[in-house]
Amino acid sequence: MRREARALKAKAIASLRLAAQAFNGLDDDGRVTTVLLDTQHAFEMLLKAALVERGTRVFDPNTGRSIGFDRVLNLARQELGLSSEVVGTLRALDAMRDDEQHYLGGVSEEVLYVHVRAAVTIFDDVLTAVFAERLADLLPTRVLPISTAAPEDLDLLIDRQYRQIAELLQPHRRQRTEARMAIRTLLALEGHVADQVGVSERDVARVERGIRSGRGRDEVFPRLRGLGTEIQGTGLTVKVRFTRNAAAPPVRFVEANEDPHAGAIREVDLQNTYKHGAQALADKLRIGTGKAKALRWHLGIETDHACRHDFVFGGTRLRMYSDLGLQKMREAIEGGANLDAIRADYLAATRDRSEA
Fold this sequence. Notes:
This protein is mainly α. It has 2 domains: 3-244, no CATH class; 271-355, Multidrug-efflux Transporter Regulator, Chain: A, Domain 2 (Orthogonal Bundle), CATH 1.10.1660. It contains 15 helices and 5 strands. The chain has helices spanning 3-23, 31-53, 69-79, 84-102, 109-131, 135-138, 154-168, 176-188, 201-212, 217-220, 270-273, 278-285, 289-299, 323-334, 339-355, and strands spanning 227-232, 239-244, 274-276, 308-313, 316-322. Helix 4 (84-102) crosses helix 5 (109-131) and helix 12 (278-285) packs across helix 13. The longest helix has 23 residues, at 31-53. The termini are far apart.
């Protein structure tokens, strides 16, 4: 093992021990904040250790500083093969940590437990895949997160919390602060399905208006529809993984002046979401720009708004692509796509269009 990777892994395990210790502590003061801070730090160190061990740089060449957690997750998906469900779980944890660290979070005990237990499952999976070590061999069994209540499906937890928020916002309850804290948690859970999560006061206000107007959960939080948990085992051996229902409706981007009658609309930084140019895609995939263009055509990336966006600056139009587009192209190549045949099909289709 590389020395740098060994040191980072040691920090990761130390932070996970602290998170487990805080989770099982008897003192509630600052407990949720401590658990989320240490869990997020444990994963940042573990994923950096894994990336370093696989030969990937974790420093920004422009600033000379270590990359942040968002960039770590993107690299881990590309270089370590982490699934979208795993990355989503860690992104949701990070969003909840961000609220707890910088403002007010409202994470319930049930939501905290199911996410921390899922985190332990992921930690063990990464540790085994990259370092051939098991978490059970590095930590006493007693320090793993335990709860007096069995883990519940995430969809049920979200539904229950949504109803509680609606009750807190009833007239004369005077619990609007508590309601908005719980709203922030549900917005943070969108990290399970969104590449970018930043809970703003505008988002919280939109959700509050939607709930006060009597809109249903699926209308106010369409992104959370279809989320669930896969729970295996019991007691200390329980494993928790988050799942997505493939039939869940896709998220739709709307213009700033469009009124979609939704309870909650998330504002996203499109330049952060669509950050890869055509040349950058080809370079990352180590293929020529011609084959990359043909592959995008073959996969339908050019017509998929989740993968491609055109930025207009004055009279200049700049086409950019998201991590999702990059991931689809990478998976096609790793799956054995015949780039020469795809390129030939693309040229033939282009020639037919021009002749027509």
